[in-house]
Each structure stands twice: as structure tokens, then as C-alpha cells.
Amino acid sequence: MSASGGATELIFFVSAVIVATAVVAVAANGIYDLTEGIDDRGDQVKDEMSTRIVIINDPSAIPNDPVLIYVKNIGTTTLNHNYISVMLDGVSRTDLTLSLSGNRTSFWEPTSLLTISIDQNLSSGDHTVQVTTENGVSDTLSFRM
Questions:
Q1: Going along the chain, which residue ranges are E strands?
Q2: Which of 4, 19, 21, 115 has a CA that sits 20 to 30 A from residue 46's CA?
């Protein structure tokens, strides 16, 4: 009877090792996924914190027809100006002409200026323009025509 008792204990021990190994494998995979998610979110926050733009127009002298908006990249991140979004009076505008100045590449480098031309004649009154970068950083300017 002692031989079968030892065999039973060995079976239980091997089973416990197998179960423990499976639990560790699942937990390690979950921890790896969590770590990757934290790293990705950290990269997003870093990009957001190093991205800054400012609309440098004089609000009392906005050029009209076309509306010209001047936006300067004052952060440390090089941006893709093709991925900006522009809202004029709460309406997303896609009929834009974009031009860069003060940079050496086709990207919106730090300290360079982006000129946004919107083919529209604004009526007199209060208006608002908001420019948002590819990673969610934005600036807003209210002005009167």
C-alpha cells in the first residue's frame, strides 16, 4: 500500500507543478501586455507634452477671403501638417491650403510656421478657429470681423 501512496503523492506533485506553471505563464503574459500598454501610453503622453502650437494671428486683423491663419510650432516635436484638423466657427474644414515656412523638410518642424488658407469670405461678427495636431494638442483663437 505504501507504493501506491507514494505514486499518488507523485501524481499530485506533478499535477501541482503543471498547474503552477500554467498560472505563471498566464500571469506573465498578462503582465507583459500591461507593461506594453503602459509604455505605449507613456510615449503618447510624452508626445503630447512636447507638442505645443500657437495661433499667432492678430485677432483684430485676420485676413479674409481667403481666411489666413498662421500657426507656429513652439514645441519640440516635429509634426505632420497633413494630419491637422481645423474648425472654423465649430465646423470642421477640409478645404484647406497648407504651406510651411522656416523648415528644412516637408514636416512641420519646431519653430516653423504653418499658414492655413481657408477659401471663405466671413461675415462680420464673432468667429472662432481651432487648430488641432495629430496627437490632440490644439490652440483656439477668437476674433471679430
A1: 53-55, 67-73, 85-88, 91-93, 96-101, 113-118, 126-132, 138-144
A2: 115
